[in-house]
Write a structure and sequence with these properties.
- The complex is a heterodimer.
- By secondary structure, chain A is mainly beta.
- Helix content of chain A is 0%, strand content 56%.
- Chain B is mostly beta strands.
- Classes of the chains: A mainly beta, B mainly beta.
- At the A-B interface, strand 5 and strand 10 of A face strand 5 and strand 12 of B.
């Protein structure tokens, strides 16, 4: 059974710090990996996608993928209170398997 | 980015009622999905479609049914709602993209969701 594991948190960081979110996946054939942000009561919003080993940067966000270790991470630089949300990791090919998400709390 | 619409946004109904949750997208995406999410829990795929007249069951067993008669429309129906169906239902769509030298992948974009409460 395909699984995506995330620490449920909450991960608490002060404003301006770097938040590091981690995810492991079990399906070795997964080729695409995604990070979604979900505010309480809202639907998930895609913030990053990554398909190759290494780093991918987009603004304050950096996704890192290590297929050998089956590990994906998301770094958020200069964290803001508005970044406080649950971050969902997903992996798959034609369909996605989602983790339970990590709650991030950024304090002013 | 996809424009995906779901109606109603909130629905409270009694046990035994038949309901249809609507999902429409305006981007012409072939692939559409229905997920169920309980508070604090992960998304579970309950149905998906790869195009018109294509429907498949997802990882989570569901008593709901879906249809795909038009590309832009993917409604979900519960013939007889029960309290165990109380949940948030999220619709998503995607279009395959291909990177050089790699297989296609699908970025999924979600609608706002329907929060269903069955009394």
């Amino acid at each position: 059974q395909k699984e995506v594991e995330q620490n449920s948190g909450p991960l608490s960081v002060p404003e301006g710090a770097i938040a590091s979110l981690n995810c492991t996946y079990s399906d070795r054939v997964s080729q695409s990996f995604f990070w979604y942000r979900q505010y309480s009561g809202k639907s998930p919003e895609l913030i990053m996608s990554i398909y190759s080993n290494g780093d991918k940067e987009d603004g304050r966000f950096t996704a890192q993928l290590n297929k050998a270790s089956q590990y994906v991470s998301l770094l958020i630089r200069d964290s803001q209170p508005s970044d406080s949300a649950t971050y969902l990791c997903a992996s798959g090919y034609s369909t996605l398997t989602f983790g339970k998400g990590t709650m991030l709390l950024v304090s002013p | 980015e996809a424009d995906i619409y779901q109606t109603p946004r909130y629905l409270v109904i009694g046990t035994g009622k038949k309901i249809t949750l609507e999902c429409s997208q305006t981007m012409g995406h072939d692939k559409m999905y229905w997920y169920q999410q309980d508070p604090g829990m992960e998304l579970h795929l309950i149905h998906y479609s790869y195009g018109v007249n294509s429907t498949e069951k997802g990882d989570l067993s569901s008593e709901s049914t879906v249809s795909r008669i038009r590309t832009e429309h993917f409604p979900l129906t519960l013939e007889s709602a029960r309290p165990s169906h109380t949940s948030q239902y999220l619709c998503a769509s995607s279009e395959p993209r291909r990177l050089a030298g790699q297989s296609s992948y699908n970025e999924q974009f979600f609608g706002p969701g329907t929060r269903l409460t069955v009394l």
